[in-house]
């Protein structure tokens, strides 16, 4: 990894490989250390959809594989106030480091400040804070994700038509970035496309209701962009089926469908020709490197900006460093690729 620790790494029985004097290979750091176990707390925004539930399970497994003690994951159930209480409770129960996926990017800021006041470092995964200091943020380039969905969708519909955009929660960086990336790309490359935006707040019922309204009132709808197939896809497919508008990819009058996440369900629907494209988040890497950076933070290690040894870039964002992990565009051509996280777990 090209990012350099600012403190001298601890040696152990499974000594980390030293590169260029000060650089430590990620793979070695992921091995359990011969040291007192580090107690880690994991705070989830909600666990009601497959993406979040699978990510929590994989992250806690990665934490244990890294030689740390994993406390049971907390579930904020979409409530930013409850997440703040959950995190305070984790610290009170002895957590020495935290992995947090924020419910709200702004509301998490004072929580980060509280953790820092208790000398408990925090690593954020998937969603970034509006501000505030963390040890590392691990997420994908969500503006880029929105842009990739736009490029696939816009080209497929010939740059013309009406597109329903089912937005995620705009109080989160992911929701805002996926909206901005999609809209900026559309404006620049496909200006003749009309975008019909509908908020969903990452709620299945709201996404389904919005899809029902737009599908039934827009007979010339050409495409639907869903910012989370984990939350939205099943409901949208049911709406299209009920409206008599669910056709397979390549058939006449097919409504092009593009999603984000790459869940097992989404990959299955791609293989069945019911979903055109998904931009798969690197969920498995969120878990792996969330655990890696948490362990490093607990041991007093820090990083600098630069390329990594896992095909990503650590970049400065405000007061923080963010490891931008790559996302993959999935079509029927690669939907069975075993490297996709959605093919590594049960539905």
Automatic annotation (TrEMBL):
Give the signal peptide as a residue range, or say none if absent. Answer: 1-27
Give one GO molecular function term: carbohydrate binding
Source organism's superkingdom?
Answer: Bacteria
**Its family?**
Belongs to the bacterial solute-binding protein 2 family.
| Record organism | Mesorhizobium metallidurans STM 2683
Q: Coiled-coil regions in this chain? A: none
Q: Main localization of the protein?
A: other
Question: Which Pfam families does this one have?
Answer: Peripla_BP_4
Name the keywords, alphabetized: Signal
Q: What is this protein called?
A: Sugar ABC transporter, periplasmic sugar-binding protein
GO CC terms, sorted: cell envelope
């Amino acid at each position: 990894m090209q990012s350099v620790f600012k403190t001298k790494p601890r040696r152990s029985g499974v000594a980390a490989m030293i590169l260029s004097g000060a650089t430590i290979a990620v793979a070695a750091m992921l091995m359990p250390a011969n040291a007192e176990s580090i107690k880690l707390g994991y705070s989830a925004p909600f666990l009601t959809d497959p993406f979040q539930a699978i990510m929590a399970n994989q992250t806690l497994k990665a934490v244990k594989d890294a030689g740390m003690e994993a406390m049971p994951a907390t579930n904020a159930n979409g409530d930013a106030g409850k997440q703040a209480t959950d995190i305070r409770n984790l610290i009170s129960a002895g957590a020495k480091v935290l992995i947090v996926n924020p419910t709200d990017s702004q509301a998490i800021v004072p929580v980060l400040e509280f953790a820092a006041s208790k000398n408990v470092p925090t690593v954020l995964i998937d969603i970034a804070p509006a501000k505030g200091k963390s040890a590392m943020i691990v997420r994908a380039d969500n503006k880029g994700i929105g842009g990739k969905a736009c490029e696939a969708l816009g080209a497929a519909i010939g740059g013309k038509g009406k597109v329903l955009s089912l937005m995620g929660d705009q109080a989160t960086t992911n929701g805002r970035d996926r909206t901005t990336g999609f809209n900026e790309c559309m404006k620049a490359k496909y200006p003749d496309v009309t975008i019909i935006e509908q908020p969903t707040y990452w709620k299945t019922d709201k996404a389904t209701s919005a899809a029902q309204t737009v599908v039934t009132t827009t007979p010339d709808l050409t495409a639907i962009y869903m910012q989370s197939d984990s939350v939205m896809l099943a409901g949208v497919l049911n709406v299209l089926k009920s409206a008599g508008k669910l056709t397979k990819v390549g058939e006449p009058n097919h409504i092009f469908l593009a999603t984000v996440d790459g869940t097992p369900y989404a990959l299955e629907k791609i293989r069945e020709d019911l979903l055109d494209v998904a931009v798969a988040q690197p969920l498995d890497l969120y878990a792996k490197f969330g655990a890696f950076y948490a362990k490093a933070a607990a041991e007093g290690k820090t990083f600098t900006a630069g390329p990594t040894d896992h095909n990503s870039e650590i970049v400065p964002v405000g007061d923080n460093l963010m490891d931008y992990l790559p996302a993959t565009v999935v079509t029927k051509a690669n939907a069975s690729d075993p490297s996709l996280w959605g093919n590594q777990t049960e539905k």
